[in-house]
From TrEMBL:
<feature type="transmembrane region" description="Helical">
    <location>
        <begin position="160"/>
        <end position="177"/>
    </location>
</feature>
<dbReference type="GO" id="GO:0033281">
    <property type="term" value="C:TAT protein transport complex"/>
</dbReference>
<dbReference type="GO" id="GO:0043953">
    <property type="term" value="P:protein transport by the Tat complex"/>
</dbReference>
<feature type="transmembrane region" description="Helical">
    <location>
        <begin position="20"/>
        <end position="43"/>
    </location>
</feature>
<comment type="similarity">
    <text>Belongs to the TatC family.</text>
</comment>
<keyword id="KW-0496">Mitochondrion</keyword>
<dbReference type="GO" id="GO:0009977">
    <property type="term" value="F:proton motive force dependent protein transmembrane transporter activity"/>
</dbReference>
<keyword id="KW-0812">Transmembrane</keyword>
<protein>
    <submittedName>
        <fullName>SecY-independent transporter protein</fullName>
    </submittedName>
</protein>
<dbReference type="Pfam" id="PF00902">
    <property type="entry name" value="TatC"/>
</dbReference>
<feature type="transmembrane region" description="Helical">
    <location>
        <begin position="99"/>
        <end position="126"/>
    </location>
</feature>
<dbReference type="GO" id="GO:0065002">
    <property type="term" value="P:intracellular protein transmembrane transport"/>
</dbReference>
<feature type="transmembrane region" description="Helical">
    <location>
        <begin position="212"/>
        <end position="230"/>
    </location>
</feature>
<feature type="transmembrane region" description="Helical">
    <location>
        <begin position="63"/>
        <end position="87"/>
    </location>
</feature>
<feature type="transmembrane region" description="Helical">
    <location>
        <begin position="189"/>
        <end position="206"/>
    </location>
</feature>
<dbReference type="InterPro" id="IPR002033">
    <property type="entry name" value="TatC"/>
</dbReference>
<keyword id="KW-1133">Transmembrane helix</keyword>
Length: 254
């Protein structure tokens, strides 16, 4: 009977946490939809003033897409916080401290990524791809970008940043239980797995798969290089440590 009461209590607590997460995400969606035009100007590239809309309902669904991207990206942080608050009472002190450090690291990683890294990548990609629309001056031909396509690529870039941190965690766990030579030997398999995963979560076009697959491969190579440097660092520490003499416990005392 006591176990049944405890199970009911945990189910109620889990239900409360899920409710807080859903209401928080809905509140973010309503807030972003209220200030949708301001968000559009925030996401616009610097020096650009307009996009082309070719469909009657395209503007409305573009606003919904923008609000969904922003609210669900922020909803991931709310979900992690509620999950930590749900698991915290049943954890030991060391486990709770580790989970709290992991939560803070995750939130700081995503905040830094979306505030500093994301705008820089968007600016670089925009300058690369928009340069092709100005190379037809000889025949007076100009291409105008579509807002929906632009937000679609922003969404794909957001997916890349979102899955980068879990990939780092998974690679660190695999590093503990595997050997570095296996990683080097299976490098081709890792490349194929990265593009297969990119093809699974992106639309069926080469550009989208490349935007997702290449960063995963870069993360894999950085992890492999970091592993090599870490092992070399440990060897240097072992070389510099003095050899301690051990007493022979089996020798008879005189």
């Amino acid at each position: 009977m006591r176990r049944l009461k405890i199970s009911i209590y945990y189910l109620q607590e889990l239900n409360y946490r899920l409710t807080y997460t859903v209401f928080g995400t809905i509140f973010l969606f309503i807030t972003t939809y209220t200030y949708k035009q301001e968000l559009i100007f925030l996401f616009l590239p610097k020096g650009f003033s307009h996009f082309v809309s070719t469909g009657l309902t395209e503007v409305f669904f573009t606003y919904l897409q923008l609000c969904t991207i922003f609210s669900f990206s922020s909803g991931v942080g709310i979900t992690l916080i509620q999950l930590y608050l749900f698991l915290r009472p049943g954890l030991y002190t060391f486990e709770a401290k580790t989970a709290f450090n992991f939560l803070v690291t995750t939130l700081l990683f995503y905040i830094y990524s979306y505030i500093f890294i994301f705008p820089v990548i968007v600016k670089i990609l925009w300058e690369i791809f928009s340069a092709y629309s100005h190379n037809f001056t000889a025949i007076d031909l100009t291409f105008e970008p579509r807002l929906q396509d632009y937000l679609t690529h922003l969404q794909q870039l957001s997916k890349t940043l979102t899955i980068s941190f879990p990939c780092l965690i998974i690679l660190n766990i695999l590093r503990i239980y595997t050997n570095r030579h296996i990683w080097v030997k299976c490098r081709g398999i890792a490349y194929i797995a990265a593009f297969s995963f990119a093809a699974f979560i992106t639309p069926p076009d080469v550009l989208s798969q490349t935007l997702i697959g290449i960063p995963l491969i870069i993360i894999y190579e950085i992890q492999l290089k970091f592993w090599s440097l870490y092992e070399e660092y440990k060897k240097q520490l072992l070389i510099r440590q003095p050899i301690k003499s051990h007493k022979n416990t089996h020798r008879k005392k005189k």
